[in-house]
Design brief:
Residues 25-55, 99-118 are annotated as: Disordered. GO terms for molecular function: chromatin binding; flavin adenine dinucleotide binding; oxidoreductase activity. Residues 1-23 form the signal peptide. The protein folds into 2 domains: 40-64 and 207-300 and 392-470, Polyamine Oxidase, Chain A, domain 2; 65-163 and 314-388, 3-Layer(bba) Sandwich (FAD/NAD(P)-binding domain). Helices cover 29% and strands 19% of the residues. A hairpin with a 4-residue loop joins strand 14 and strand 15. The protein contains 14 helices and 23 strands. The protein is of the alpha/beta class. The longest helix has 17 residues, at 6-22.
């Protein structure tokens, strides 16, 4: 039995739970037990190699990127960016008012914090930058070029933060476990910078090929996107913010037809499809946590405005970090500040004092309170940290010996079975001529898989790929 939508699934789940709790135990069978049937072999072969991310389980990330949670506002991103006593500054993608959740948003926020600092400081002052991700390195680069003495302190043993490029001899290309794309490339210079660094990238058209569980290719219905659009329009007219889930209920999503239409897909299935393959993917959060006022609207990015990075996103950070003083594998546990200096305590027990500091750790780390601020951050900053959400999106990269699929589509999606964890796949074959697939899992599904071992994670991915496997035609017996 397949579940139709996240709303109907929730109600059905409660009913099934109640029934299972009240049902009497079934009598044990007597006589000769029936042999257990051997499961049919999977149509998807085992991969030659696998790499995965688990950002929510990463203590130095605690999520993938920020999102607009219910009752949060864009102003709170601005509040977080306000300097504190002109000594302490915060930066990161969560503080970007124009491009949150993106590399360009993180870098822009870091540069903004550095400019705010330079406007109140004297060249030569000693500045600590906490975090060597896109925001931290961008801030440190600008400050160093402006004549400040900069020390970057990074908890990981590598640069990049949530930009995580893996170079391995067993892979024919760099593997991106963090961001892979340049979004809105017409509005920023990331593609030009990567070209200057001789990092290859290519246009990417995210037009999906949608398949049902039995592998039938079906045109994408506008029902799901139209339903979400109507819910967001309703939410925008309300006096108070509400979740996207409640907005969907209010606009009649629970009355969508569950009757199978073309290819056995119902209107309710198409709503689930929109949420799983687009809306939740963009925010990394389920609909019951997303703001109805600020949740991403369907199809807001132009099809010709996306590029995929093929030659190593991490090169961007490595180049900016050239000749910077970076202290790796050093966790900052306490940040003390006054109107004259900033003191830092490391996990090793060591302490140092600087004139000013920029904190660029992810929102998920700030929400976890693992860094002690003394005195506590101002109320507006703490309120913003509590209100904004941290979403999760994880990836799995699979390299096969040869393609087991027969489609040249670059993006694969599934509709009609929301028990599959990986609902979106990128086929690297037409882009790189390599039999590599990249799967995406987000929201509650990502959180559910985060602590699973590599075998469980891979098995979930392979099951999600079955609609795209070539079904061999059986040869009749002579």
């Amino acid at each position: 039995m397949k579940r139709r939508t996240f709303l109907i699934s929730s109600l059905s789940g409660l009913s099934l739970l109640a029934l299972s709790g009240c049902a009497p135990p079934k009598p044990a069978p007597t006589g000769t037990p029936t042999p257990t049937a051997t499961p049919a072999p999977s149509l998807v072969p085992q991969p030659q190699d696998m790499l995965r991310s688990s950002w929510s389980d990463d203590p130095f990330a605690r999520g993938s990127y920020s999102f607009a949670a219910v009752s949060s506002t864009p102003q709170q991103r601005e509040d977080l960016a306000e300097p504190i006593l002109d000594r302490l500054f915060l930066a990161g993608e969560a503080l970007s008012d124009t491009a949150p959740g993106t590399v360009q948003g993180a870098r822009g926020s870091g540069q903004r914090a550095a400019r705010d600092l330079t406007s109140v400081a004297e060249p030569g002052e000693r500045v600590a930058v906490i975090g060597a991700g896109a925001a931290g390195i961008a801030a440190a680069r600008l400050l160093s070029d402006a004549g400040f003495t900069v020390l970057v302190i990074e908890a990981r043993d590598r640069l990049g933060g949530r930009i995580h490029t893996v170079n391995s001899d067993s892979w024919p290309m760099p593997v991106e476990l963090g961001p892979s794309f340049i979004v809105a490339s017409n509005a920023n210079s990331l593609d030009e910078e990567l070209t200057g660094l001789e990092v290859s990238h290519a246009p990417f058209a995210p037009t999906p090929e949608a398949r049902t569980p039995d592998g039938t290719v079906t045109p994408v219905s506008p029902v799901g996107a139209d339903t979400v659009t109507a819910a967001l329009a309703w939410a925008a007219e309300q006096a108070q913010d509400t979740s996207l889930a409640k907005a969907l209920v209010a606009t009649g999503s629970t009355t969508l037809s569950m009757t199978d239409g073309e290819a056995g897909v119902s209107d309710a299935d198409w709503l689930d499809y929109q949420l799983a393959t687009s809306t939740t993917l963009e925010s990394g959060a389920p609909a019951d946590e997303m703001s109805g006022w600020y949740a991403p609207a369907p199809a807001t990015t132009a099809m010709d405005d996306i590029r995929i990075v093929l030659g190593g996103y991490g090169t961007l950070v490595d180049d900016d970090a050239a000749d910077l003083d970076v202290l790796l594998s050093s966790v900052v546990t306490r940040v003390g500040y006054t109107d004259t200096s900033v003191s830092l305590r490391l996990g090793t027990g060591e302490s140092l004092t600087v004139d000013r500091a920029i904190v660029t750790v992810p929102l998920g780390v700030l929400k976890s309170d693992v860094i002690e601020f003394n005195p506590p951050l101002p109320f507006a900053h703490r309120g913003a940290i509590a209100a904004l959400g941290m979403g999760t999106l994880d990836k799995i990269w699979l390299r096969f010996e040869e393609p087991f699929w027969d489609t040249d589509a670059a993006v694969w999606t599934t509709v009609g079975d929301d028990t599959l964890d990986f609902r979106v796949w990128v086929n690297m074959m037409p882009i790189t001529n390599e039999p590599i697939l990249v799967g995406f899992v987000s929201g509650k599904q990502a959180l559910g898989l985060a602590k699973s071992d590599d075998t469980e994670f891979t098995d979930a991915a392979l099951r999600s790929l079955e609609p795209f496997a070539i079904v061999a035609t059986a040869t009749p017996a002579p």
